[in-house]
Amino acid sequence: MNPLLSLSDLSARVQAKIERSKDKEKVFDIIVLGVGSMGSAACYYLAKQGYTVLGIEQFDIPHEQGSHAGQSRIIRKAYFEHPDYVPLLEAAYKNWIDIENETGTQLYFKTGLLYFGEPDSALIQGLKLSAGKYNVPINSISTQEMQSSFASFILPEDYERYLEPDAGFVTPERAILTYAEQAIQLGASIHSHEKTMEWKKTGSTITVKTDQATYQCHKLVITTGAWAGKLISSLANQLTVTRQAIGWMKPKKQHLFDLGNFPCWTLSVRGKPGIYYGFPVLPPATFGGVLGLKIGHHAPGSITDPNLVDRQSAQEEEHDLIQTLQRFIPEGYESTAMMKTCLYTYTKDENFILDYVPDTDQQVVVAAGFSGHGFKFASAVGEIMADLATKGKTAQPIGFLSTARFHKKY
Ligand SMILES: Cc1cc2nc3c(=O)[nH]c(=O)nc-3n(C[C@H](O)[C@H](O)[C@H](O)COP(=O)(O)OP(=O)(O)OC[C@H]3O[C@@H](n4cnc5c(N)ncnc54)[C@H](O)[C@@H]3O)c2cc1C
Hints:
This protein has two domains: about 5-70 and about 175-235 and about 350-405, 3-Layer(bba) Sandwich (FAD/NAD(P)-binding domain), CATH 3.50.50.60; about 85-170 and about 240-345, D-Amino Acid Oxidase, Chain A, domain 2 (2-Layer Sandwich), CATH 3.30.9. Helices cover about 30% and strands about 25% of the residues. The protein has helices spanning about 5-20, 35-50, 85-105, 120-135, 145-150, 170-185, 230, 285, 315-330, 380-390; strands at about 25-35, 55, 75, 110, 115, 140, 160-165, 170, 190, 195-200, 205-210, 215-220, 240-250, 265, 275-280, 295-300, 300-305, 335-345, 355, 365-370.
């Protein structure tokens, strides 16, 4: 693996390539709308298959207005949400390692992931179900081991404690830049600061209108994250965008929490919805953002419109995150370094949508509704989008993520 370039140097290198890849061409085999987490990977896999590809992004690549900002995203395999995701995670891990080997750029950091919760919590029950069904290694942590290796945590007596050693985090900004750069290397055109206004299918041709030009293509991939409902009216009622606050906290003793000394963690708290989660302290030069112990609460925030997000006030959320740290990781909080907001796009069952857009003769593919747990899958979703668009099928078991589930009558 190459030594880690600073995020600003990597970004400058890729922005220069994005500028050069902007051409005057108006007709493409495939257009990808939204070059964020899923779209950047889709551009890469499509360009790799030799198709002419245009990726259109409304903001910078990457940026802080959508769902991918903030240094780090947890990757784990003993999937407490549902065991059906585990085969997709096998593909995602493989693809993260493939892109790392192809580029020499580290994107996945194996820190291990701790799971703490009441025996009957959805976190612990779901973790055991997925790990058992797919033989994902998880280790129960003894009291002695807690004291020797994870002494920063103070837990209720009855909590169960597990470590998934192969879990860790992936780096969203670096991953998006890496996929965009590789896509361009393979011949894709990537346009940033260009907003898609509408798309229309006429016969077998799809026309895409942006605020700057009109393009045509044979296949369209829509990966517009929190804005998916605005471009696919038939899915608008299935998607709810929420505002999520995350904090970076200055710990009392930073070295205890530095990358290399501290793992990622998840925690179920009695009486609170969802889970709390966190990361080691990461050096901002390499990962972006600020120096601090990152903590978040994975549970629905307030409903918002992606164009009208209140990005200022997060006092209530900050108070809740501080209380959680003070109770469970007291050495982890001295003061708040930064609060930020980010967007989740929920489906009603919190499962993704990976499918063709209804009534488009399988010419338009969508990846949306990642419900706050999608980034770790980006490396697999990019390939799935490419395969659905070009081959009309995927080898991955994505039936449970189809739009057909919205029309089921029980
Ligand atoms: C605080 C927070 C913590 C999270 N933690 C984790 C975690 O630990 N692990 C994990 O796996 N996942 C996590 N997630 C979820 C994960 O980050 C998202 O599921 C994932 O980033 C969604 O990817 P996406 O491609 O759908 O959206 P994005 O990455 O936001 O990409 C969509 C892109 O489409 C562009 N776009 C939209 N409309 C248009 C238009 N009209 N024209 C052109 N471009 C357009 C947007 O600007 C954007 O760049 C977290 C999310 C948040 C907010």
